[in-house]
Structures are given as structure tokens and as C-alpha cells.
Amino acid sequence: MEWNERRTLLDQARAWWEDPEQVSHYRKEVDSGPTPAEQLLFRALPASGRVLDVGCGAGRIAFHLADKGYDVTGVDISEAMVATARDLAGQRHSTATFRQVEQLALPFPDSGFDAAVAGKVHCYVPSRSGRQEFLDEVGRVLRPRAPLLLVSYVVPSEQEADDVLASDALHRRAAARFRSLEPLDTFCGDRGYVHWFTPESLREEFADSPAFELESVREDEPGGFLRLVVLRRRNTTGAVPGGTKL
After folding, report:
1. How confident is the model over 74-96, as pLDDT tens digits?
2. Where's the Methyltransferase domain (predicted)?
3. pTM for this entry
4. What beta strand segments (E) does 120-170 contain?
């Protein structure tokens, strides 16, 4: 994907998560805590240590893990989400801390975290090369063999998804502005962007990561449209020292 188009999509993602309706929605969700599927995924966390919550939103997962005794840092590209999370942290007397980041370049030293979680974040990064850079950057700040826990969307097949997108006028209008989209790059209205995966393409993409080994992929529920993924940071990674700029 061309650099200018990738940057435009990242800027659109930031604008989407800055929308007051989105911020209000995620603030209301905080008290619900993790879903049963996420609780199952969290079994792969170490018993204690520093956890990075990438794409933390208003803090739903960060507060839960902090209450469990983890030292949690949440990061998000949205200033509004981070401001909301900080406000809630004060109200809840939570030990979780929050930082706004630029395009998911992480302002942390190498190997400083014992685990990371990223709920529905990877699928919002445009282009396969961009998503690999994202994985490299998260891998850089994790200790060797630390887990990265991901939640990602899937669709049953590329053909079924293409059929749906072909009938969606808003998607077609938004997609027409770009020349270098990948198959299954998807638009919700004029702003929202997400890359859908098939179950097979999701596994293939993680299998190609120089930063992580693919440990497990499971459905959130039988026939569900989410996959719960455990990646394990390799002892030696292809991560870029000092961070990357997506």
C-alpha cells in the first residue's frame, strides 16, 4: 500500500476513535469488564508482571488486569480515549496508567513488558506490511517468550465477504478514494476502516511474523466472527530497535 494512503487510513482511524459517540460508548462499557472469551484468553498471561494494553480505549481491560495485581500501562492513538481512561482511573483509584501514542509507535524501551494484550487493534492497521511493523514494534517492547494476546475479526470466506461488500454503497464510495487497497479492506460509512481476515489468512499472516511464534487460535464461540490469538515473542526477533513509524 502506498505510504500516503496508509497514513490517510491511520488518520481516519484516529478520527473514528476521537468521535464523542465512540468515546461515550467505550466509557459505558468499562464496568462490564472482559467477556468470557477474553477471560479464557487471559489464562495465557503470566501470574504477575508488567502488561501493555495496546489500543486500551477507555480502560475496560486495563482496569480489570490492574485489579488482578498486574502493573498495567494502556496506550491508544486517541487523546479522547486516553483522557477518559485517566479520568476513570482517578475515580476508581486504579493503579493502571495511560499514554497517548503516535500511530502505535511505542515510547518504551526494549524488553520492558512481560505481556501485551491488543483487543481488535491489529485488524485496524492498514496493509500487511504495516501490520507486520506493528507486530515488530510490540515484540520490541516485550521480553523474550512473553505472550501477546490478540482479538481479531474473521469472515467465513473471501468470496462471501466480497459479495457483501459489493452490495454496500457506502463501502464502495469510501474504497473508491484509494488505489492500493488489499482484498477484504472494509469501510463502514466514510470513516471506519477495518481489514477482515478469513480464518486461513489470519493464521498465515501470524505465521509470517519474524517477531512472534503463533501459539494458538480459537473461536470466541462456535461459528463466531472473532478469533482469540496467543502469540509468543521469539527469543530473537526482527523487531526494529528504537521503534518504528507506522
Report:
1. 999 999 999 999 999 999 999 99
2. 51-144
3. 0.90
4. 147-153
